[in-house]
Protein: R2R3MYB
Organism: Brunfelsia australis
Amino acid sequence: MNSSITKSSGVRKGAWTEEEDTLLRKCVEKYGEGKWHQVPLRAGLNRCRKSCRLRWLNYLRPHIKRGDFSEDEVDLILRLHKLLGNRWSLIAGRLPGRTANDVKNYWNTHLQRKLISPHRQDRKCKVSLKITENNIVRPRPRTFSSTKNIVSLGRNDSNTNTVDKDERCKQISTSTCDNPTADDGVQWWTSLLANCNEIKEVDESPSLLHEEISPTINGGISNCMQGGQISGWDDFSADIHDLWNLLN
DNA sequence: AAAAGTCACAACCGCTGTACA
DNA sequence: ATGTACAGCGGTTGTGACTTT
């Protein structure tokens, strides 16, 4: 990581210095996140906007958790990855303090290896893994209100456009999990499914979850409850089964 | 002790989706 | 309807740290 590397355009590349970090931090604190194209100018950094954004998101943002992933976190990653595939930002969104880059790196260095060669034991990770190939939920666009209001989804909106379901999941998650708690992931699933049910009720279009949702979701989530995080998971998984039948 | 191999992670690159004129 | 700019994402790379031989 050569911090002195400079692009032909004159933009700095490579590792960030303390000084650059300070400038970026102050800039974001002053102007807030977003408008990343303006950040290099505002902060007086000779970096591209992508570099600034990444540095902030992955390193400078407050409350970023460092160090090893807990067993719970690993478990959640595995289950979410089983369902969502390489949607690192979505997965990271369910892991408070973890960034998409963290999750991706952890997956690539720790977990994927187990998929490829399960016999090989990781030196650090003690979590026993049983990973099976499953169909991945691949969000597909569908039409719904451009207001992006979850409550009014599919209801009497003449103005429609296509929006990735992920975005809606994010909305769902942010609306219910802004202050992540220990059962954060559980809440997310609950709200996701609740929302799916709601949408089914208000919108008879069968295309909402037209992705290849595997029935194994049922088993996966049922397993997810084994940590004693919450009671009544039999009902929960039964609901999922109902949902699955409904969607089919 | 040194060389080779492996790991961990920060950072970059290219692509896609979205907003807006 | 189209083009452009921007934001964000996932894949990949580079390199220092660590471990093994």
User: Anything to note?
Assistant: Residues 16-62 of chain A form a domain with the Arc Repressor Mutant, subunit A fold (CATH 1.10.10). Residues 119-134, 138-186, 196-248 of chain A have pLDDT under 50 and may be disordered. Chain A is about 50% helix and 5% strand. Residues 1, 13-16, 48, 50-51, 54-55, 58-59, 101-102, 105-106, 108-110, 123, 161, 163-164 of chain A lie near DNA strand B (CB under 10 Å from a C1').
